What we know:
By secondary structure, the chain is α+β, with helices and mostly antiparallel strands. The chain has one domain (32-205): Glutaredoxin. The chain has five helices and eight strands, in the order H-E-E-E-E-H-E-H-E-H-E-E-H. The chain has helices at 2-24, 77-94, 114-122, 135-144, 194-205; strands at residues 33-40, 45-48, 53-56, 64-70, 100-106, 128-132, 167-170, 175-180. It has an eight-stranded mixed β-sheet with strand order 1-8-7-4-5-6-2-3. The protein is globular.
Amino acid sequence: MQSRWLIIIGGILAAAAGALAFITMPQEKPEALVYDPPRALAPFKIESTATGGTVDNEALKGQWTLLFTGYTYCPDICPTTLSSLKTILPQLQAHADVPVKVWMISVDPQRDSLARLTEYTGYFGRHFVGVRAEHPQLFPFVRDLGLMYSVPEEGETNYLVNHSAAIILVNPNGRRLAIFNATHEPGAIPTVDMEQLVRDFAILAG
């Protein structure tokens, strides 16, 4: 009888020790820059391919959203980023209990009409949304996200737009939660490490 109680007590102590070890074990942390607490976005109004009209901050609520700057005439960063995000989107969705969407913020309002954006983002799937605005509304919106872009000289028609390659993660409360910065390697276009994005998202959305 005594040995039986010793076994039970030993089992309880072993379970308690295991639980304590789990609690004190260093928890995995994301490599992305995480905003703690998440940051509210300044009020904005911007055109969206999702509605065919204007949306505001409410459009970011109830979903996880990955935002990045781009434009339809972009020769490299934008199509590469969109294609990569399309590939990993099912993995991201597996870690989320609400939809995961991608917003491409056009930084070329002169050439990117809503119709052109609709056709461009539609190629990648229904979870991809194009948004646009004229520079007076666009620049503050992009700057508030912590991103940037260049504005072409007046009268230019054939030009490239320099813009950030980072991706912003907005949580289902419509607040900025993290930024995934692009890696810059000689001879290669700057891109976000998508495998790391998946790992970090699993932690942040968990």
